Amino acid sequence: MRRPLFTKTAFRVVRTPPIGDTDAVVTGVTSIRAQRVHRRRRVYRFLRNSALFMTVAAIGGYGLGFHHRYGSWPGLDVGDRINWCGQQYQSSVTDLTLSEVNTSDRPVEQLFSYPPHLPRADVYGLPTPAGSCPTALYIHSGSDRYTKYLAPTG
Q1: Residues near 141 by Cβ (< 8 Å), separated by ≥ 6?
Q2: Do 146 and 96 touch, CB atoms closer than 8 A?
Q3: What's the gap between Cα 79 and its chain centre?
Q4: Which entry of 10, 15, 99, 111 is 20 to 30 Å from 62 by CA?
């Protein structure tokens, strides 16, 4: 006599296990419980992977936006450009001393810190009247060391 492929249990139709596979015999109640556990694990796995993906996407988006705005990656030193006062200042001279920076009769003073996140660098420049931008900015890059950034001309 032929064995049936499917058998009816009290709760649902279960596939008949192969001959000799006694461990695969599952009652209807255990099978439903196993399905619930499997479904719960799938949901938890989906939520975990979704949260991980959104976290990685948020960190990547923040890094790209930071690089676009400030010209350097988060956590790195100031790059070769500074966006401030509606202008893009480009790096021109490095390793200046404070005496080389203060060539005019007015000394430079700290204007702001750049970028707004760590690591910050102090930016110095000649004070200007309200509404105008300085032609040069100086970043304090070390012990008595400054880097000069010039505004675009034109």
Answers
A1: 77, 94, 121, 147
A2: yes
A3: 18
A4: 111
Contact 9, 16 (CB under 8 A): no
What is the spatial distance between Cα 31 and Cα 4, in angstroms, rounded to a whole number?
19
Could you tell me if 63 and 121 are in contact, meaning their C-beta atoms sit under 8 angstroms apart?
A: no
Amino acid at 154: G
Give the contacts of 139 (CB within 8 A, at least 6 positions apart).
78, 82, 114, 121, 122, 123, 124, 146, 147, 149
